[in-house]
Amino acid sequence: MSKPSDPYSDVGLEIVRPALEAIMAEAARAAPEEACGLLLGNDRRVTEARPTQNVAQDKARHFEIDPVALIAAYRAVRNGGPQLIGFYHSHPCGPAEPSATDREQAAGDGKVWAIAGQGVVRFWVDHPDGFEPLCYRLVEA
Ligand SMILES: [Zn+2]
Q: Where are the domains of the chain?
């Protein structure tokens, strides 16, 4: 990541093809509800998109990652496992960009959010002052 004010100037993230395909497959499987899960990897490379349960009440409009899966992921990080790079979820009938609800839910912790919608996956960084689009490069596993 170079200049954070100009995210398009840099390819900030790499994702292996099976992880990207897993996000699309999960989005299709979960529709008309929102799919969600964890982006795991190392440094700036996502090597796994791990599906989790969506435990939100209204799954067609919201997502909430299963806290049990989240705690397990953080525990794995402490034990030397892959890093938690961020999260993904899908918009069954919306664009692949943060919704008003997403902006409310955002922690501003610098995590990567992948959002699947309308047949594409786009990546965002959850900055304290809002989401910024993140370029990514698809790599073969
Ligand atoms: Zn959303």
A: 10-139
Domain 10-139 has CATH 3.90.25.10: no
Model confidence, pTM: 0.90
For residue range 36-63, list pLDDT tens digits in order: 999 999 988 999 999 999 999 999 999 9
Amino acid letter, 31: A
Q: What's the 3-state SS for the chain?
A: CCCCCCHHHCCCEEEEHHHHHHHHHHHHHHCCCCCEEEEEEECCEEEEEEEECECCCCCCCCCCECHHHHHHHHHHHHCCCCEEEEEEEEECCCCCCCCHHHHHHCCCCCCEEEEEECCEEEEEEEECCEEEEECEEEECC
| Alpha carbon of 79 to ligand 1 centroid (Å) | 30
Cα(97) to centroid(ligand 1), Å? 7
Average pLDDT over residues 63-73: 96
> Is residue 20 within 8 Å of residue 121, measured between CB atoms?
yes
Q: Is 43 left (phi over 0), alpha (psi -120 to 50) or beta?
A: left
Q: Ligand 1 centre from 134 Cα, in Å?
A: 16
